[in-house]
Amino acid sequence: MDMEKRDLEQIEGLGKSLADVEKDLEHFKKGFPWMKIVAPATPERGIKVLSEKELEEAEKYCLTAQKKGVCKFVPASGAASRMFKDIFAGLATLEEGKDVPADSSVARLAANIKDFAFYTEEMFGQPQDSADYRRKVADKVLNESGLGYGMKPKGVIRFHRYADGEVRTAFAEHLVEAQDYMRNEDGTAKLVVTISPEHRPLFEAELERVKAEYEKRYGIKYEIQFSCQDKATNTIAVDPDNQPFRTDDGSLLFRPAGHGALINNLNEIEAEVVSIKNIDNVANERLLPTTAQYKKALMGEALRLRDRIFGFLNELDGCPCEQELAELLDRIEEFLDKELCVKVPAVDSLEEREALLRSKLNRPVRVCGMVKNEGEPGGGPFIVEGRDGSTSLQILESVQINKADADAAAKVVRATHFNPVDLVCCIRDYKGEKFDLLSHVDSEAGFISSKSYQGRELKALELPGLWNGAMSDWNTLFVEVPLETFNPVKVVLDLLRLAHQNA
């Protein structure tokens, strides 16, 4: 690859090396291997469905986490431009002097404007059935002459209005949630919120607006850290011929590499237990009891799983005799198969078997909520065979599955659940040391997507997703959670759903 001096300076300025860039370019040329699906994870094998008694016991077990310290990790980077994509398109049509269909997104936004938490009569006036009014609403929502939501992050968009007149952003709702199920024994609620650097003032202003009031109302002390994605995780873009993409001024184009880059931010957290939930997955506070109940259950299940694994590792450290070791390894192998769908290949000696099973145990733990398929988007839970011949539970996105493979396609059709990004992670080992999460990433689990820049086509490289390949080498348990706990706002009209309105 021919690189000019300024290219090397640009690469260095991002904190990257030439070798990093060359590795990315090689991925564009070779692509990524398809995931080898053994079966979908279902309640029959791979997804745990809690009974009422188990749910109660898991909630109680969660109390041990609050004694040790828990932290909520909220991915909130990027602008909400995709949330308003259809509104941008509608505004362009209206500004051309044309009207839009009554069932279009922009027409529905205008017709229901009073039902959105960001409505004020001063800004939007009374709703009218006219093209001019629809254009006014779209303009005021998107552009700086009004709310400027077209380029603001989802976290500071007003999601909910309450009967007493209180209006909450998505970020504010995460603070309210945290005081419930993420309260530590010392009375703190700790959150790490990943943001883009340019959005920091907006988040800091929103925190200042509600922090003192919520601390008084809920008897909590918030410890909030805003964490920015490292520019060194940006990946180079290429043209359709896999040559480095250059902008009009001749410089290389590097792009944020998706949420998988956030494994670096997660790796910096000191807490023992971390809960992960996307910024847009919040609901009206009346649904919080159900959300909190299952979030605590996920924490309890994560701690129970972790403690069982710690028990096995401590037994292995106890230097059992050869017969006791063989019996212990049998129990470990049975546990891995039954609880985590991990089947390991046969090895030649007892020593090799011990080393293999120890390596399967001594890794980070995650428990992931899974929701029954009911038309919502999300990656799917599957049992996958890895390159070492062992199986494990993985969350796969559709781009990781070869749809032309009839066998893989048939297994996808049999899937019963999807991933709502509702995770609890244990990131310290049985000796109390932090895992190096970066050493548990499957670098071959990324994918390539088609994008554009300045009207020109390009190919972008996405790093292994945070809950996909970035956690590929974790011990994983899937637990069914109710659909009521999943209320994402992917487009602005989602805010009209009952979960975001006052019932």
Notable features of this structure?
503 residues, alpha/beta, nine-stranded mixed sheet, 15 helices, 18% strand, globular
Write the layout of secondary structure elements.
Layout: H1 5-13, H2 18-30, E1 36-40, E2 47-48, H3 52-61, H4 63-68, E3 70-75, H5 85-95, H6 105-111, H7 121-124, H8 131-142, E4 158-161, E5 167-169, H9 170-181, E6 188-195, H10 200-218, E7 221-228, E8 235-236, E9 254-255, H11 263-266, E10 273-277, H12 288-317, H13 322-340, H14 350-361, E11 365-372, E12 380-385, E13 391-396, H15 406-413, E14 417-418, E15 422-426, E16 447-453, E17 456-462, E18 475-480
Parallel strand pairs: 2-18, 3-6, 3-10, 6-7, 11-18
Antiparallel strand pairs: 1-12, 4-5, 8-9, 10-15, 11-14, 11-15, 12-13, 16-17
Walkthrough of the structure:
It is a single chain. With 503 residues, this protein is of the alpha/beta class. It is 35% helix and 18% strand. It has 15 helices and 18 strands. The chain has helices spanning 5-13, 18-30, 52-61, 63-68, 85-95, 105-111, 121-124, 131-142, 170-181, 200-218, 263-266, 288-317, 322-340, 350-361, 406-413; strands at 36-40, 47-48, 70-75, 158-161, 167-169, 188-195, 221-228, 235-236, 254-255, 273-277, 365-372, 380-385, 391-396, 417-418, 422-426, 447-453, 456-462, 475-480. Strands 2, 3, 6, 7, 10, 11, 14, 15 and 18 form a nine-stranded mixed β-sheet that branches. Helix 3 (52-61) packs across helix 12 and helix 5 packs across helix 6. The termini are far apart. The mean pLDDT is 93.
